[in-house]
Write a structure and sequence with these properties.
With 63 residues, this protein is mainly α. The protein has a single domain, classed as Arc Repressor Mutant, subunit A, CATH 1.10.10.60. The protein contains three helices and no strands. The radius of gyration is 11 Å and the shape is globular. It binds zinc ion. The site of zinc ion has 7 residues, from helix 3. It is an enzyme of class 2 (transferase). It catalyses: RNA(n) + a ribonucleoside 5'-triphosphate = RNA(n+1) + diphosphate. DNA-dependent RNA polymerase (RNAP) catalyzes the transcription of DNA into RNA using the four ribonucleoside triphosphates as substrates. Its cofactor is Zn(2+). Part of the RNA polymerase complex.
Length: 63
């Protein structure tokens, strides 16, 4: 499953920031802080990334 390039709600580009988000969370940073850093202030965009990351995490654990 590929993350949508843009937020469904507001149209902000989220896909390009997603790899950075995953990398930093894996390094141990707080997901909320990373989202703030990347400039995702609206909950619609944060939800796009966070919900997608949860799915990836579950898939990754299977491997
Ligand atoms: Zn949005």
């Amino acid at each position: 499953m590929i993350i949508p390039v843009r937020c469904f709600t507001c149209g902000k580009v989220v896909g390009s920031a997603y790899p950075e988000y995953v990398k930093r969370v894996k390094m141990g940073e707080e997901p909320q802080k990373v989202l703030d850093d990347l400039g995702f202030e609206r909950y619609c965009c944060r939800r796009m990334i966070v919900s997608h990351a949860d799915l990836i995490g579950e898939i990754a654990q299977l491997g």
